[in-house]
Amino acid sequence: MTPHWQAAWQAIVHHPLFGFAITLGAYQLALAAYEKTRWMLLQPVLVSVLILVGVLLICGIDYDEYRRSTTLLSLFLGPATVALAVPLYLNLRRIRQLLWPILLSLTAGGLLATASVAALAWSLGIERTLAMTLLPKSVTSPIAMLVAEQIGGVAPLAAVFVLITGMLGAILGPECLRRLGVVHPAAQGLALGLSAHAVGTARALQEGEECGAFAAMAMSLMGVATAVLLPLAVALVA
Amino acid sequence: MLLRGLTWLVLFQLLGTGLNVLLLPMLPGPIIGLLLLFGALLARGGVDDALSLAAGNLLRYLPLLLIPPAVGVMVYAEAIRAEFWALLGALVLPLLLAFFGTGLLMQKLIERQARRRSAP
């Protein structure tokens, strides 16, 4: 009797836990590479995505199947978002002390983030649907997807732009900010959370509790403001 | 301990989902859950150990949780390639502006506030 190599391989690759397993593996590999080299470009999320896309293409698994086999992970994204309330609360005193700087920076930064996308999309001649998909790219993906749909963009593509933005922000990270003289953890956290949402917040949490708390705050305020104001602004302009 | 904290987090997320359908269709459930939990912590005046343990553990793995949705990039490879340079410009330049703009402004404002407080 010949061993059924092919059948065994197919059973492994299409097992509902396969996506989960390769995601855990890729993440640990990426994390180890980052910790060893400390290169800004080797952001764990980015490297994991590259490894995983490669593995999925080689094994002939489409994204739908992969997404189904990682439900275990994506289900926890909701509670993890809720959990951001804890560092936020623990740093409440620091946040209160810096209330005016925070409000000013967030308003200016938020307007800058959204208006510059609109200006660039218009001047680069990006077509309307794609431009509407780009507009909410600075906010966390569930909000961005909802908002993109409301203003006439493509929801899943919005999630992609959100994640690319987040990964770029995490690559720049606190290192680049320090080089420009932005040394206060509150200022670094605010910049990361406002422009790079959850990926930036995850990066900020690695930096420290205070940096993470300010990032979480910037992310949630930017998210809420975008969800409420961007559809109104688009309706007014159009 | 861990389970009790996790239960609270999941309950707040579910509460958020309910409110999202009932009252606030423009805010996703988890964000409403975040605001509700923040309100509850303010009202109680403290974070209990179980909650802080669960939140800390979950947040440590936040980057891992973000990977599956990020892999979705592969589905749109074609659409992205078609307008690659314009998209790159529209993604990167605003990010640089917002990122460094917000950071620099906040740093300057913090320094100004510190100077004012130390001045007699």
Automatic annotation (TrEMBL), chain A:
Keywords: Membrane, Transmembrane, Transmembrane helix. It is found in: Membrane. It holds the Pfam family LrgB. It comes from the Bacteria. It is a multi-pass membrane protein. Its main location: membrane. GO terms for cellular component: membrane. The chain crosses the membrane at residues 12-34, 41-63, 69-90, 102-123, 143-168, 180-200, 212-237. This is LrgB family protein. It comes from Pseudomonas mangiferae.
UniProtKB/TrEMBL annotation, chain B:
The keyword Transcription regulation does not apply. Keywords: Cell membrane, Membrane, Transmembrane, Transmembrane helix. GO terms for cellular component: plasma membrane. InterPro entries: LrgA/CidA. It is found in: Cell membrane. Pfam families: LrgA. Its main location: membrane. It is a multi-pass membrane protein. The chain crosses the membrane at residues 30-47, 59-78, 84-106. PANTHER family: HOLIN-LIKE PROTEIN CIDA (PTHR33931:SF2), HOLIN-LIKE PROTEIN CIDA-RELATED (PTHR33931). This is CidA/LrgA family protein. It comes from Pseudomonas mangiferae.
